[in-house]
Write a structure and sequence with these properties.
The complex is a heterodimer of chains A (328) and B (172).
Chain A: E1 30-31, H1 46-59, H2 61-64, E2 65-67, H3 72-89, E3 94-99, E4 102-107, E5 112-117, H4 128-133, E6 139-146, E7 149-156, H5 165-168, H6 173-176, H7 191-201, E8 208-217, H8 227-233, H9 242-245, E9 246-257, E10 264-274, H10 282-293, H11 297-303, H12 306-327
Antiparallel strand pairs in A: 1-8, 2-7, 3-4, 4-5, 6-7, 6-10, 8-9, 9-10
Helix pairs in contact in A: 10-12
Chain B: E1 27-32, H1 38-48, E2 53-58, H2 62-66, H3 68-73, E3 79-86, H4 87-99, E4 107-112, E5 117-121, E6 127-130, E7 136-138, E8 145-153, E9 158-164
Parallel strand pairs in B: 1-2, 1-3, 3-4, 5-9
Antiparallel strand pairs in B: 5-6, 7-8, 8-9
Classes of the chains: A alpha+beta (328), B alpha/beta (172).
Bound molecules: protoporphyrin IX containing FE and zinc ion (ZN).
The site of protoporphyrin IX containing FE has 25 residues of chain A, from strand 6, strand 7, helix 6, helix 7 and strand 8.
Chain lengths: 328, 172
């Protein structure tokens, strides 16, 4: 289990929500600034996260990585983009040597080297995205554009909540979002709208971002595969222990159009912040308390936190009061 | 076949209670694989009543079923397909039709008897058949309790089965 320790790097999910307003689903995609289009971020938790990610991939390869055999070329394209981004953003951590198709990628933090023939999958131990993805803390999903929809054809996923590459393999954008009560403030269905928005606005060289969030009770892996184990632990939360047990679980998401395959690469950076750490940012604390107090029941049921939302809100209320007393 | 090709499942949009004439099609093609439904087919043909060109193929045995692809491959664009069969035969004909390039909108399926329904255990990835009305079951393979969800996967060929611990069922 890790938590975000550098709060300046924590993707706080409610930045763009007006003070005093509530949280509802919307098309909250934002275009990334021209000079900030990389999805590769090194946090103090980098090594911890990579270690855990690789354990999960090795323990349950079928759960965590899925692909179709016809995706190799598309995967190489993604691998190339990620390597170039890493080397550009963090030359002190990543280096690459390219001699024709003979590439050597160095991960200096982990003291590892990957040598391969670019484009030749027989020269590597894993599939291209599975191999390169093991050097980055994020999850990766490749959604291929076919007949006005996006279909999940490759996914490496270790951290994202309620996400199963195995189950979602081959599904369209709409099928994937079917379990989500995906309606706007005024009950407008969002799936088709958001899908069309992605298809027409995520263009090569113009990536977009959004933030998704959830709460979880003392558990890292909240996927459907393990629902029988984490489901019951949600009932252990009380107003006394919520500060430690309950975490704000945030996914900073990135969307890139791949120029050659025309697929959309979906990248998820998952970070955790225990409720008690909100005390370090009183503005966040107050806003989170206010937003969690007004979550509609269908959304709470979908997100899975109905069993512990009451004690969590109670805990936050007490923390807000405590912080106010201290500052007065 | 590609991975996102349609499959026949109990909620398939192609399944109908009664065949309807698609006047916008060039030709109607009826595949009748269930002799018990002969009356219904006859009624439907009376209903077509010369409005459209039609072809009736009566499947009498397994061999004919195996050769169905040839018949379907021969069809030109603009053919509406009507399948009357028991579940397993309907699946064979449906798959052959998709393979031959029919879209779901070009197929109507009339099932005799029970439709089959499957649940995919998301804990151990085992697929098993369940009754039409079942909402809960036990996975034969890993013995976990499964709540049968409303979401279907063409890739996994079943409805999602969420594992749960029956000792912790609470009313929410
Ligand atoms: C194209 C790539 C995308 C993929 C692969 C994807 C995948 C997923 C998955 C697997 C889930 C969980 C579904 C479940 O419970 O089974 C989900 C939830 C959700 N997605 Fe997406 N998504 C994508 C893009 C988007 C975009 C662009 C939006 C924009 C608004 C969005 C909004 C949501 C929301 C609101 C939820 C519910 C999450 C929650 O409340 O915790 N998704 N998505
Ligand atoms: Zn099972």
């Amino acid at each position: 289990m890790y938590k975000s320790t550098n709060l300046d790097l924590f993707p706080y999910p409610f930045h763009n929500i007006k003070e005093g307003s509530n949280y509802r689903y919307s098309n909250d995609l934002r275009k990334l600034e021209k000079d900030q289009t990389s999805c590769i971020h090194i946090t103090p938790e980098y090594e911890k996260q990579i270690k855990r990610k690789r354990e999960l991939l090795n323990e349950q390869p079928e759960v965590r990585f899925q692909s179709y055999p016809h995706t190799m070329e598309m995967q190489w394209e993604v691998a190339e983009m990620l390597i170039n981004m890493a080397v550009e953003s963090y030359p002190e951590h990543f280096q690459v040597e390219k001699n024709g198709n003979h590439w050597t990628f160095h991960n200096l933090t982990l003291n590892e080297t990957e040598s391969f023939i670019f484009g030749d999958t027989s020269s590597i131990e894993f599939e291209p995205l599975d191999l390169i993805g093991r050097h980055f803390t994020t999850d990766f999903v490749l959604m291929v554009h076919r007949d006005d929809n996006l279909y999940l054809e490759v996914a490496q996923e270790s951290y994202a909540a309620l996400f199963s590459p195995h189950w979602n393999k081959g599904m369209s954008f709409d099928e994937i979002h079917a379990p989500v009560p995906f309606v706007s403030r005024t009950d407008v269905p969002l799936a088709e709208r958001v899908r069309n928005f992605l298809l027409s606005n995520v263009l090569p060289g113009e990536p977009w971002t959004r933030i998704n969030w959830n709460l979880m009770a003392n558990r890292w892996d909240v996927n459907y595969e393990t629902f029988d184990t984490w489901g019951p632990t949600r009932f252990l939360v009380t107003p006394e222990n919520a500060g430690k047990l309950v975490r704000l679980r945030v996914e900073e998401q990135f969307f890139y159009r791949m120029p050659r395959s025309n697929a959309i690469l979906f990248v998820l950076n998952t970070q955790f912040l225990p409720m008690e750490d909100l005390e370090l940012r009183p503005v966040w604390l107050e806003q989170t308390y206010s937003i969690l107090s007004g979550i509609p029941k269908p959304m709470a049921d979908y997100k899975g936190f109905t069993p512990f939302i009451e004690p969590t809100v109670e805990y936050l209320k007490n923390l807000v009061e405590k912080v106010k007393l201290q500052t007065n | 076949m590609v991975y996102n090709s349609p499959v026949l499942f109990d909620k398939s949009e192609t399944i109908v209670e009664k065949f309807t004439v698609r006047r916008d099609r060039r030709k109607l093609m009826i595949i009748s694989a269930e002799p018990k439904e002969a009356d219904i087919i006859e009624q439907f043909i009376n209903h077509i009543n010369g409005l459209k060109e039609y072809e009736l193929i009566e499947m009498k045995d397994e061999l004919q079923l195996k050769n169905i692809s040839e018949v379907l491959d021969r069809q030109k664009m603009g053919t509406q397909l009507y399948i009357s069969a028991k579940w397993d035969d309907a699946v064979t004909i449906f798959m052959a039709a998709i393979e031959a390039g029919f879209s779901e909108d070009e197929i109507q399926t009339l099932i005799s008897g029970e439709k089959r329904r499957y649940v995919y255990c998301i804990k151990c990835y085992h697929l098993q058949e369940v009754e039409a009305e079942e909402t809960d079951t036990i996975c034969y393979h890993c013995q976990i309790s499964l709540e049968i969800g409303p979401f279907f996967s063409r890739e996994r060929k079943g409805y999602i089965g969420y594992p749960y611990n029956p000792a912790f069922v609470t009313s929410t």
